[in-house]
Amino acid sequence: MLITSLVMSLNQLLPVAILLILLQVVAKQSLMKLLGGLILGIGLSFLFVKSAPLMSPLFDYQGLEYAQIGLCILIFISALYYAIKQATAAFMIAIISVMTLYLSHYIIYLIGFWQSNEAAQSLFIGTFLGLGICSSFSVLLYFLLSAIKQRFGLTPLLVLLALNSAAKLVVALDLASQIDLIATTVTVWDLRDILTENSEFGRVLRALIGYEATPNLTSLLSYVLSSVLFLSACYFIPKSITKEKS
Amino acid sequence: MIKQLIRPYLYCCVFLSFNAASKDYRIVLKDHLFYPAEIVVPANKKVRLLIENQDSTPEEFDSFDLNREKVLYPKRKSVIYIGPLIPGRYEFFGEFSPNTARGAVIVTEKERSNANN
């Protein structure tokens, strides 16, 4: 139970921490806004968990998937808007959405097993350790990305943010094929012998850039196209705004 | 003319809908174990997994191989579509009880059906 809690907390906290750090390094937000976003995110995650049994039977028992697809799309759009305009609202929406998407799973796990006396201690220690590891990773990532920004400018960060956001659209596609909304296409390659997604490095890569060992054609094309779209928008839209102003 | 165009379309729709709904594979989660732990499904066909969580705790059906993830609420049924898949072994597990709740979808060319209908 202790190891499961630790792995679960890392799985659900890492994607939140990575997006938070990426957005913070692209354009820094004040500590108050950051804390506000985190508190709102935790609150909405609990609300999502509470309303999940009501949402679940909607649309022929596909309500939760639709809600999660909506959150994934919201993360992509708000991250893109933040990369272009650095608007606080976009930062808040991205953070709250990613927290609701990932933390809700962990909250379901915590609530489900908390009642068991034997499990409570393991859950607490596992969560505490997971938070500690995630915080350490976040600090290191923050300084690494800040150093990259100082040396190479914003472009590498925008590429990373584009890949991270595009990965959320791939999650949305997987959810859509899970409920038979879109057809699953053929697997393009199988890298399970080289790097599995449940290995330590595989998990970090998955949280960072959406690594998939067995991607299907639709996912791969969407990933590439949405990354290109993200980067093109970041490159062309600020230029057109500057032109209009001058 | 319109009738001639519509008729094949309707036949096609009816055929596809029967084809899509023809195979249900039922998996039960009980005492943090999947029953059956292995299901055999035909290659290159979409199948519908009906997963029933009979435990009093939630579970999360997770599979890196199938790119699927779904919370299974206690005492409830959930549906996941998978495939079409190429022959091979695709593992899945319960993320909340990964040591016990483990299973695999075995995709074969020859249909050794353990479908429910």
Major beta sheet, strand line-up of chain B: 3-9-8-5-6
Global morphology of chain B: globular
Beta-strand fraction estimate of chain A: under 5%
Mean of residue pLDDT values of chain A: 90
Distance between the termini of chain B: 38 Å
Kindly provide the radius of gyration of chain B, computed on alpha-carbon positions and rounded to a whole number of angstroms.
17 Å
Helical fraction of chain B equals: 10-25%
Order of helices and strands of chain B: HEEEEEEEEE
* Largest sheet: number of strands, sense, barrel closure of chain A: none
- If interface size is counted as residues with C-beta under 8 Å from the partner's C-beta, which chains form the largest one? A-B, 35 and 31 residues
- Taken in chain order, the helices and strands of chain A follow as HHHHHHHHH
The low-pLDDT segments of chain B are 8-22
Main sheet makeup of chain B: 5 strands, mixed
Query: How many helices of chain B?
Result: 1
| Distance linking N and C termini of chain A | 61 Å
The CATH class of chain B: Mainly Beta
Domain EfeO-type cupredoxin-like (chain B): 17-107
InterPro entries (chain B): Cupredoxin, EfeO_Cupredoxin
Protein name (chain B): Cupredoxin domain-containing protein
Organism (chain B): Pseudoalteromonas marina
